[in-house]
Design brief:
Helices cover 74% and strands 0% of the residues. By secondary structure, it is mainly α. The longest helix has 30 residues.
Length: 191
């Protein structure tokens, strides 16, 4: 029962893309591409195995389902490396840790932690993608319409984040130095 559907699993056509494409797409979409990537892999798995899995739910909760996905891919490899298993577990740990830290820490620290997560989380997917690429042979070069939409939204969000002034700084213009200091102390106290 444990390996139910294993023969069908061997015919799964997982989402095989280049490692650079995965990392850049994930980084520039602020992690939304991770959800898309997970959805594509879970949808391929469901299609081939007829297993009772909901790809959209599995993708939305990618930080919880990544270990299961990695194990399904791992079983198909003739040479099994432990690095992708460790990366799947680390993905979950980093995601949950950063989410909790952002919730409980100051706004300034939250920004730094989020940026670190946007860099580290896609890196942790690379060994899993490398295993997928070993199974598939060559990588897919074409971008789907959803990938293009995600990338455009991500780049626009990225540009908006750098080009838009901090709302607090804008509201402080025109206030006296004492008023600005009082507001700064209040905001610091709140966070």
């Amino acid at each position: 029962k444990r390996f139910k559907g294993l023969k069908l699993n061997a015919s799964v056509k997982y989402f095989n893309i280049s490692l650079l494409r995965l990392w850049l797409s994930s980084f520039f979409t602020f992690g939304l591409y991770d959800i898309y990537w997970s959805y594509r892999n879970w949808a391929a798995y469901k299609k081939a195995t007829k297993d009772d899995v909901e790809p959209l739910l599995a993708a939305v909760f990618n930080f919880l389902t990544i270990v299961s996905l990695q194990r399904k891919i791992h079983r198909l490899l003739p040479e099994r490396e432990k690095i992708d298993a460790m990366c799947a577990v680390l993905y979950t740990i980093v995601f949950i840790s950063v989410s909790m830290a952002v919730y409980y820490e100051s706004l300034a620290l939250a920004g730094v932690l989020t940026l670190i997560a946007y860099i580290i989380l896609p890196l942790l997917l690379l060994p899993i993608q490398k295993s997928i690429n070993k199974l598939a042979g060559k990588t897919t070069k074409e971008y789907s319409k959803w990938e293009i939409v995600l990338l455009v939204l991500g780049v626009l969000g990225f540009m908006h984040g750098f080009l838009t002034p901090d709302p607090l700084e804008v509201r402080l213009e025109g206030l006296t130095e004492v008023q600005q200091q009082n507001i700064g102390e209040t905001v610091g106290f709140l966070y």
